[in-house]
């Protein structure tokens, strides 16, 4: 390994899914520039019998391109380009996993088990006070999903979020960047000062997850209705749905980017 490359770089590439040989070859191409297979084998100590397989794999995922000639040479793509490409590849991977689990395996789960009633209720009408009461009762973590970011809602709830910080509650907010329209910079500045805010391309619903064991999912906010108006809301305590939501949150959070107000001038 190159002594100038931090260990965490190797660890990150391996975490993405590269083998040790692929990681070493890619970094060698970055640090040394265009190289032949023989040159890479000599620099990285990758056996010459394996180096072509390694380079083909890197070419197949779009991280390396081949330069025709005798001998053929190889060039690494720019790291910034590879980072964006890797993010897309991770998103596609999670999408396939989600499809396999939810659409294919979930219908098969517990088919032979006795069906029991699940703790899910539908709340109708003005539920603002219910939200406030549950926010104030939160003791450890508050997770908020915003498919349709509502600055008025955030302004109304800010003092209650501020109360949670006094209790040392962690507040995490996932914002659907496709629907994000920053007009009240002050409220976003205040929200970002007391919570972790992450933007992601697609959030499926508006919801509050309280202490990872209770959840409110807003249906009518898909139509941009304020929680002060009439709403249909699911109140959920069912453990499997809560666990799915937690997994969904972790997946989106890993793919998102930190909210920076300067990006919304």
Automatic annotation (TrEMBL):
It comes from the Archaea. This is HTH-type sugar sensing transcriptional regulator TrmBL1. Gene3D superfamilies: Winged helix-like DNA-binding domain superfamily/Winged helix DNA-binding domain (1.10.10.10). It holds the Pfam family TrmB. InterPro entries: TrmB-like, Tscrpt_reg_TrmB_N, WH-like_DNA-bd_sf, WH_DNA-bd_sf. Residues 13-79 form the Transcription regulator TrmB N-terminal domain. The lineage of its organism: Archaea, Promethearchaeati, Promethearchaeota, Promethearchaeia, Promethearchaeales. Signal peptide: none annotated.
């Amino acid at each position: 390994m190159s002594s100038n490359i931090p260990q965490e770089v190797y660890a990150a590439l391996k975490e993405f899914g590269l083998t040790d040989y692929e990681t070493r070859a890619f970094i060698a191409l970055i640090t040394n520039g265009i190289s032949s297979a023989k040159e890479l084998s000599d620099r990285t100590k990758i056996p010459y019998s394996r180096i072509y397989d390694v380079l083909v794999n890197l070419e197949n995922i779009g991280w390396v391109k081949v330069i025709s000639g005798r001998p053929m040479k190889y060039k690494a793509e720019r790291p910034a380009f590879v980072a964006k490409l890797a993010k897309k590849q991770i998103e596609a991977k999670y999408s396939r996993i989600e499809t396999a689990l939810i659409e294919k395996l979930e219908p098969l789960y517990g088919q032979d088990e006795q069906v029991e009633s699940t703790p899910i209720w539908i709340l109708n009408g003005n539920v603002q006070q219910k939200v406030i009461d549950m926010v104030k009762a939160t003791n450890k973590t508050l997770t908020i999903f915003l498919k349709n970011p509502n600055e008025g809602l955030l302004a109304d709830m800010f003092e209650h979020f501020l109360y949670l910080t006094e209790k040392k509650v962690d507040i995490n907010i996932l914002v659907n960047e496709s629907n994000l329209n920053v007009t009240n910079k002050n409220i976003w500045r205040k929200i970002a000062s007391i919570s972790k805010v992450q933007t992601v391309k697609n959030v499926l619903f508006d919801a509050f997850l309280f202490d990872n064991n209770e959840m409110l999912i807003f249906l009518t906010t898909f139509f941009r209705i304020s929680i002060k108006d009439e709403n249909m809301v699911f109140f959920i305590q069912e453990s499997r749905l809560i666990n799915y939501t937690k997994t969904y949150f972790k997946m989106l959070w890993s793919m998102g980017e930190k909210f920076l107000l300067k990006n919304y001038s």
